[in-house]
Design a protein that fits this description.
Elements (H helix, E strand, L loop, with lengths): L4 H16 L11 H4 L2 H17 L7 H16 L9 E5 L6 E4 L3 E5 H6 L3 H16 L2 H26 L5 H41 L5 H16 L5 H5 L4 H17 L11 H14 L4 H14 L2 H17 L3 H14 L4 H13 L3 H8 L10 H12 L4 H17 L4 H14 L2 H14 L3 H12 L6 H23 L4 H6 L5
Parallel strand pairs: 1-3
Antiparallel strand pairs: 2-3
Helix pairs in contact: 1-3, 1-7, 4-6, 4-8, 6-8, 6-9, 7-8, 8-11, 9-11, 12-14, 13-14, 14-15, 15-16, 16-17, 16-18, 17-18, 18-19, 18-20, 19-20, 20-21, 21-22, 22-23
The structure holds zinc ion.
The site of zinc ion has 5 residues, from helix 6 and helix 8.
Length: 503
């Protein structure tokens, strides 16, 4: 498949992680909590996540982020550890896969969303991954894994260093051999955890308001479809083999829940219409060939059943916009909006297409009246700010910065938000504030040394206000332990530069 790199990188980082704690090897059988502290888990997960993003594997779209985060947190609220931190994100990959990393980072591939037919199928996979995290399976797997994988970890680290002077081929070979060994092991020691994740995930699914049988149905359908196509199983089924036992246990568990536990009235009602739009949005935004996608959508629309048509039209509208066929995109999205005049996703999507078409005034006018109705909508505020910024006028830049400012406290970890905020401040003439936001973008997109340097440079500027200076100093103090940790692990600025991390 085209995007096989994410799994490679995850593994690489996972192995680096093994290296990071090799100073004090715990005894086999020691408790999971002793191997990695929650803080360490969070730090390693974070590093992996930022690295993913730096390499372009995270679909950073405010509408999709809002969707997957809301769905994820909803599931977590019904898990055994609702207080645990989670970060849900969509991976730019057509492979059918999902995974959890230390620290509660749960990635769902666009390809998995695409093959799911209902929201509860997506939720089933996410609930399963949430259960891996709440049951600390990763840490336990890691605990068993590390002794035997340390040589591989060292080789991998060596491979990274070796790329400085040699061609990439040697690196690839070392990676491939290491990964083969890893995959073999991974399946062996997580299979019993898989059953536990199934069992607990189905409970989460049910208590959230989804059909608990969705997990069994989805796995079975995936297995049947890939068998019918004569393809090998997708990555998710390779790590989560669909056996008769697994499916029947999932079924039994679902039935047991339904008969034993009363349904709670306040349950969430699955929103398949929204899910269908989101899966097409993920498909379009993760594609690197929008014009081919336009043709695909046109063909699929001709063959579609009436029930599928609207989501396909939405996908086509987005694909047209991405393929720079702006007039067609705007006209199609307007048609959808005519049918549902208050549809927030359509309103924002049309406004974005209008901005891309150079009609930023129409876009801003379309979104302005919504700000009062949806005061907490990050996608709406970001889209509105983008429309304002497109005007290239100073006062509009100021208005954009004002619109985004309340969001910065709430989701400052969102690089799309920070980047839009930076551009708004640039336009407004507040270069100091823009630089600070750019430093945050650098940090969250896997360029931590760059971020640190930008923050320090900011302190040299006499124009920086007292309050901003205090804030920047506090931020430097916050990031310093992370930088020191990276330096301990021999990831130096020059390495960052060599790997293309620095700008
Ligand atoms: Zn699993």
């Amino acid at each position: 498949m085209k995007f096989s790199k994410p799994s490679l990188i995850a593994l690489l980082l996972f192995l680096n992680l093994a290296h990071a704690t090799d100073i004090s090897l715990p005894e086999m059988g020691s408790s999971a909590a002793e191997v990695l502290t929650p803080e360490e888990e969070d730090r390693y997960g974070r590093q992996m996540f930022y690295e993913y993003r730096r390499l372009g594997y995270v679909v950073d779209d405010p509408i999709l982020a809002d969707y997957i985060e809301t769905l994820g947190y909803r599931l977590v609220a019904h898990s055994e550890r609702p207080e645990q931190n989670f970060t849900f994100f969509i991976v730019r990959s057509n492979d059918i896969n999902a995974f959890a990393a230390p620290g509660g980072f749960v990635g769902v591939n666009a390809g998995l969303m695409y093959v799911a037919q209902r929201e509860d199928e997506l939720a089933a996979v996410m609930g399963h991954e949430v259960a891996h995290v709440t049951q600390r399976h990763l840490v336990r797997a890691y605990e068993k894994m590390q002794k035997s994988t340390i040589p591989i970890a060292l080789a991998m680290l060596g491979a990274l260093v070796a790329t400085r002077n040699t061609s990439g081929d040697a690196t690839e070979a070392i990676l491939a051999s290491g990964i083969g060994a890893m995959q073999q092991q991974q399946i062996n020691f997580t299979r019993h955890n898989e059953f536990e994740a199934d069992r607990i995930g189905i409970g989460i699914l049910y208590r959230t308001g989804f059909a608990p049988v969705a997990a069994a149905d989805f796995f079975k359908r995936l297995a049947n479809e890939t068998r019918a196509n004569g393809e090998g199983p997708p990555p998710y089924l390779r790590t989560h083999p669909v056996t008769i036992t697994r499916v029947s246990e999932a079924h039994e568990r679902a039935e047991k829940l339904v008969t034993e536990e009363p349904v709670v009235a306040s349950l969430y009602k699955p929103d398949d219409a929204k899910f269908n739009l989101m899966k097409h949005r993920a498909r379009v935004l993760s594609s690197d060939a929008p014009s081919i996608l336009v043709a695909d959508y046109q063909r699929e629309l001709k063959q579609s059943k009436p029930a599928q048509r609207e989501a396909l039209e939405y996908g086509l509208g987005l694909a047209l916009s991405r393929a720079a066929m702006h007039a067609e995109a705007v006209s199609l999205l307007k048609k959808l909006l005519d049918r549902h005049p208050d549809h927030l996703t359509y309103l924002i999507s049309l406004a974005q297409a209008e901005v891309a078409a150079g009609q930023h005034q129409a876009a801003a006018a379309r979104l302005l009246p919504l700000l009062n109705d949806y005061p907490d909508s990050a996608p709406l505020k970001i889209a509105y700010a983008e429309a304002l910024i497109a005007s290239t006028k100073t006062d509009q830049g100021r208005l954009a910065a004002e619109t985004l400012r309340p969001l910065i406290n709430k989701r400052g970890w969102d690089p799309t938000l920070q980047l839009t905020f930076a551009r708004a401040n640039e336009l407004a003439g507040d270069e100091d504030r823009a630089l600070e936001a750019h430093a945050e973008v650098a940090l969250y997109t896997g360029r931590p040394f760059d971020a640190m340097e930008q923050l320090k440079r900011l302190l040299d500027r006499p124009s920086v206000s007292y309050y901003q200076r205090a804030r920047v100093e506090a931020r430097i103090a916050e990031i310093t332990p992370y930088i020191l940790e990276l330096e301990r692990r021999r990831i130096h600025p020059e390495t960052e530069q060599r790997l293309g991390l620095a700008r």
